Amino acid sequence: MKAMILAAGLGTRMRPLTDHCPKPLLPVAGKPLIVHHLERLATAGIREVVINVSYRAEQIIAALGDGSEHGVRIAWSREATPLETGGGIRRALPLLGEAPFWLVNGDVWCDVTPSALAPLGDDRARLVLVDNPDHHPAGDFHLDAAGRVHAQGEPRLTYAGLALLDPVLVADRPDGAFALAPLLRAAMAEDRVGGHHHRGAWVDVGTPARLAALDRALGGSRG
Question: Would you indicate the residue range of the signal peptide (predicted)?
């Protein structure tokens, strides 16, 4: 199985840290955040990784190269301007192929592994969901007792930014910028989205304060 790391965002919530450094390269416990992802993927046995890049793309490519230093092979999907999550995946389909792949938002940190999730079967997606963090108390989706994900319903959980996806979910969309969430909701309406409630470590590294907290939790020295 291949993986895709989403790393094309502008990192506006992380300013001023991202004024001169793209968010994936911000250090956490002595190494760039994206390197934590690459090492976890390699440990899980995933060797083929697609990374989309836009903002300060050359810095990211120069830092990671072909990925061999981290036990993976990286294929780069370039975007002149960020294409949002759905558009970024659609642009990368020639690199991803037709088999389900593991999707990772570049600005999260999580100790879940792909092996924790059941295969897709006839589903279009299987989402990793977590308890709602303080900064997102309303959550995103409802996970029922049968492991099915719904756009409506209670209680609600938060999408962790990790998922197994079938490329078919975006394959019929034209190239360009578009969000993934509406396509997921449409698949939920057809009962084709499953979920996994992850109760382990997870951090949305979306602000300088949360980056600093993760750094301290992992043994770094960021104040």
Answer: none
CB of 157 closer than 8 Å to CB of 130:
yes
The 10s digit of each residue's pLDDT in 23-73 is 899 999 999 999 999 999 999 999 999 999 998 999 999 999 999 999 999
- Identify the bridge partners of residue 125 per DSSP, sorted by sequence position: 165, 193
pTM above 0.90, yes or no: yes
Note the pLDDT of residue 220: 61
Candidate CATH numbers 2.40.30.10, 3.10.450.330, 3.30.70.3270, 3.90.550.10; the one for domain 2-220: 3.90.550.10
pLDDT score of 223: 43
* Cα gap 158→22, rounded to integer Å: 25
Which of 159, 8, 172 has its CA nearest to residue 82?
8
Contacts of 55 (CB under 8 A, 6+ apart): 8, 9, 10, 11, 18, 22, 82
Secondary structure class of 104 (helix, strand, coil)? strand
Biggest CA-to-CA distance, the chain? 47
Give percent of the chain above pLDDT 70.
Answer: 98
Provide the residue ranges of all domains of the chain, joining segments of one domain with +: 2-220
Specify whether the CB–CB gap between 38 and 50 falls below 8 A.
no
Distance (Å, whole) CA 1 – CA 217: 30
* Pick from 138, 129, 127: nearest CA to 193: 127
The DSSP code for 174 is P
Q: In terms of pLDDT, which residue wins out, 218 or 75?
A: 75
